[in-house]
């Protein structure tokens, strides 16, 4: 008849499993994500980008044609990190959730976006193309 495991062995194994789980979660917390936004407006207009989260306002950035703006951050453990940006060029103004952790955490840690008149597209590392695309919800026209 086999002897029952000792209490100290069970406690040691339980501690080891708990410690391993904590280490994996700490490693996940330290992982950074990046967003890179490139102006590909066919009209060759300058693109004004203004990105924010609940806690951070990243300011306004002027992007000439084919120029990028990038920022990085640590997604949170609650899977609720959200950055949204406004995109403006002469005659147009749009908003978009440029990083939604629930949507994007399995798609990218380096999230490469291109922005055009019809919408924006995310680089797909599986197809090696900018084929995850979103059209602007409305073609809101600004009157000067």
UniProtKB/TrEMBL annotation:
It comes from the Eukaryota. It is found in: Secreted. It holds the Pfam family Self-incomp_S1. Its main location: secreted. GO terms for cellular component: extracellular region. Residues 1-28 form the signal peptide. Keywords: Secreted, Self-incompatibility, Signal. GO terms for biological process: rejection of self pollen. PANTHER family: PTHR31232, S-PROTEIN HOMOLOG. Belongs to the plant self-incompatibility (S1) protein family. This is S-protein homolog. It comes from Momordica charantia (Bitter gourd). The gene is LOC111009858.
């Amino acid at each position: 008849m086999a002897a029952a495991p000792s209490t100290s062995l069970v406690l040691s194994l339980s501690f080891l499993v708990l410690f391993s789980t904590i280490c994996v979660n700490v490693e996940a917390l330290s992982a950074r994500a990046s967003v890179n936004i490139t102006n590909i407006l066919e009209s060759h207009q300058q693109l004004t980008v203004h990105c924010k989260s609940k806690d951070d306002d990243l300011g306004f950035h002027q992007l000439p044609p084919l120029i990028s703006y990038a920022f990085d951050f640590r997604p949170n453990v609650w899977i609720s990190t959200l950055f949204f940006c406004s995109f403006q060029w002469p005659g147009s103004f749009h908003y978009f959730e440029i990083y939604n952790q629930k949507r994007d955490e399995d798609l990218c840690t380096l999230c490469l976006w291109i922005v055009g008149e019809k919408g924006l597209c995310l680089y797909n590392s599986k197809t090696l193309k900018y084929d995850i695309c979103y059209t602007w919800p409305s073609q809101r026209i600004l009157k000067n």
